[in-house]
Design brief:
By secondary structure, the chain is an alpha+beta fold. It has helices at residues 15-30, 35-42, 46-53, 61-71, 199-203, 205-209; strands at 98-101, 107-111, 121-127, 143-157, 160-165, 169-173, 178-182, 188-195.
Amino acid sequence: MPPAESVVETTSLTETERRVSTRLAGLRRESGLTLQEVSEGTGLSISYLSRVENGRAAISVANLAALAEFFCVPIGHFFEAAEEPPRRVLCRAGEGRHVRLRGRRGILVRMLALAKADRVMEPFVADVGTLKADMPMQAHPGQELIHILEGGCRFDYDGEETLLEEGDSILFDASVPHRVRALARRRCRFLAVVSAGDRRFHGDIIKVLEERIQPR
């Protein structure tokens, strides 16, 4: 059931409510989404979202929570003062968030640039040896580069298998089903960089990796 909408219009929003409206409008524009797309993703009407963005209606906590879930940001994001996104993100050795690709039996990866919200690429380091079962073939928006840092692995792509060894790189259209598989008794670590113009993909990357949602 979609969230209940407040139909009360007002011209006297508090400073906090105005900040929420401004942050919501800015976040939608940064994500390259229309009001219709946000409406379809949240169940909130276009007219209601427009009134909130333009400061003509206050928003309930429940509706704000639905929008935070849709945009993959903490609810506190809407209350923070606008800040200039960082021009660079340094990830020291051993740092970066560790998550498993495709659930508990998937590959362990280390995300390298999550702190940069306006990124158009998603770099991470993966350890094929952490796989507990072969991953299913997968596809997602954009292009992807894989560079083998250590060892070797099999790369399956649209029905073709390629052996990748240390120092090898492969760039491909990631919208075509693909996967990496371990070789018997071989260690393999690789750097992957996914480049996609779809901002929702980058906002959703952790959910995609943990299989809480399916990439479009």
